[in-house]
Amino acid sequence: MELQHYLGSLTLASPTYDETMGTQVYQQQDGRIRSALLAVPMRFVACGTSLPGRLLGVFMSDADKEAAGAAQLILALRPRRADFAFCDSASPTSRSHLLAIGGKPVPMQNLEWTRSFRPVGALTQRFAERFLRGRSFGLPIVARPFDSLLRHLRPDQDAPEAAVASVTDMSIPNFLDHAPRLIAHYTVRPLWAREELSWLVSLAAQNSRLGAFTIRAVVDHPGTIIGCFVYYAAPGRTAHVLNVLSLPDRETVVLDAMFRHLDETGHVAARGRAQLALMAGLSLQRWLVFRHRAFAMVLTRVPEINDAVARGDVYVGGLAGEDWSRLLGDFH
């Protein structure tokens, strides 16, 4: 029942819900549903124009019994002139299907970065998650002296920059006010009207498996908010970063402040999705690695939008994506 309720909230309760932009299913003549593509309506601003969009989410198919249904759902995604759809969780197979019907990949966003603060502690956490079903059996305690030694041998070289910006608490109403401003420089971006963004935040906050849903502002020395970050706080474990929002050309300062804060609050590591605008700042971090996560794709026939996507002038991911969804790991 909990899964059923969550699916209803996710797919039908959006304040911008429109059945033409919602979930699609393939139903056989006998009434059985063999394939389904979950979708969440999300409004976007593209090249100065507001347009309805949809996040393409979990794709389900009984391939052994009804491959034709899955194919029909994929073909139905072929965009018409004013359509806009996107996905940030595509597998290699899904990517191939989306490319075949005109989809465009978002540069760099197939990568996930991981920044270690306490490498031995991060390693023991991954070991516990993979082989011990999440039970640590005291491994974090064993890891602490080794991490302390590593931090002593390689002290934080970025400490002198700590005064450039500071991290402060950010309330949800304050975030709703500032988030659209912090992404306004992107040609293609979520509209994030207050009601819609508030709904997304409320859903993301339900995913307590990853930690406590948290928003922090990054403030420069005069006291101006130059950015913020949204993440699941889990001191002693890994912080899962959903969004890093920043004024243009302040991304490196915002990232430095964020990583300092996550380190100081006791996280062993932080993890988040790569974005083209963040790459310069991420490349300056020590103990940071990239790995393939999932492909981010955009589907539209509007040439100006495709041009913006090709040059990375698009903001998707996090709250404008699927990483917050409980369907990715909270129901087994």
Describe the structure.
The chain contains 10 helices and 14 strands. The chain has 332 residues and is an alpha+beta fold. Strand 1 (24-27) and strand 2 form a beta hairpin. Helix 4 (119-131) runs antiparallel to helix 5 (139-153) and helix 6 packs across helix 7. The radius of gyration is 21 Å and the shape is globular. The two termini are 13 Å apart. The model has no long low-confidence stretch (mean pLDDT 85).
Secondary structure: number of strands = 14
> What average pLDDT do the residues reach?
85
Gap between N and C termini, in Å?
Answer: 13 Å
Overall spatial form: globular
Order of helices and strands: HEEEHEHEEHHEHEHEEEHEHEEH
Number of helices: 10
Low-confidence stretches: none
Proportion of β residues?
25-35%
Main sheet characteristics = 7 strands, mixed
Percent helix range:
25-40%
Class by SSE composition: alpha+beta
How large, in whole angstroms, is the Cα Rg?
21 Å
Features:
single chain; 332 residues; globular; seven-stranded mixed beta sheet; 10 helices; alpha+beta
Write the layout of secondary structure elements.
Elements: H1 2-12, E1 24-27, E2 33-46, E3 49-61, H2 67-76, E4 85-90, H3 92-100, E5 104-105, E6 111-116, H4 119-131, H5 139-153, E7 165-169, H6 172-182, E8 188-190, H7 194-204, E9 212-220, E10 225-233, E11 238-246, H8 251-264, E12 269-273, H9 279-282, E13 288-292, E14 295-299, H10 303-310
Parallel strand pairs: 3-4, 11-12
Antiparallel strand pairs: 1-2, 2-3, 2-8, 4-14, 5-14, 6-12, 6-13, 7-9, 9-10, 10-11
Helix pairs in contact: 4-5, 6-7
